[in-house]
Design a protein that fits this description.
The chain is of the alpha+beta class and 171 residues long. 30% of the residues lie in helices and 23% in strands.
Length: 171
């Protein structure tokens, strides 16, 4: 069950917040870095993500930083590449109208951050925007997950609140 919860958390593209007393939710920002070992800008982008991850781990804010290694068929072998990540990156580009997929490419809550020369200050600025002023969320989502014991299926429901204009919920 933890695997599903983490995966669904990674897929939120909204700034989440409290909906009602039955479903208390705190603001989250998910920072995704699409990277590859064959990319010359990627080591510095990875260091920037590591720095933000460390800072946010002691800040008390709910920020999840994820490095997703992709491979596009180049001769360079990336042992960390996973076939599930390129389609995810392509879908982000498709939904947001970004014409080019590349590395490094970083998204905060499903919104393109920057595609080269990432640094901790820029990432943190976009995290702050997504969390809202004083961590007050602009929109919320409440997920309910149900699965029978030992069942191969997972059923989920969701409720949205707040200003969701221009936002995508990708599950």
């Amino acid at each position: 069950m933890k695997k599903y919860l983490l995966y669904l958390t990674m897929l939120f593209t909204l700034s989440v917040g409290q909906i009602n007393a039955q479903c208390p939710i705190v603001p989250y920002a998910v920072v995704e870095l699409f990277t590859s070992q064959g990319c010359s800008y990627c080591p510095s982008a990875g260091e920037a993500l590591d720095s933000v991850s460390y800072y946010e781990s002691i800040s008390g804010r709910n920020v999840i930083c994820i490095a997703e290694h992709v491979k596009y068929g180049s001769a360079w072998t990336d042992p960390f590449a996973d076939a599930q990540f390129p389609p995810r990156q392509y879908n982000y580009c498709l939904y947001t109208g970004v014409p080019v997929v590349g590395t490094p490419e970083s998204w905060v809550n499903g919104k393109l951050l920057i595609n080269a020369n990432l640094n901790p200050a820029i990432i943190t600025q976009h995290v702050n925007i997504q969390l809202g002023s004083a961590n007050t969320p602009t929109a919320g989502v409440c997920l309910t997950l149900q699965t029978p014991v030992n069942a191969p299926t997972l059923t989920f429901g969701y409720t949205l609140s707040g200003n969701t204009s221009g936002a995508n919920l990708i599950v």
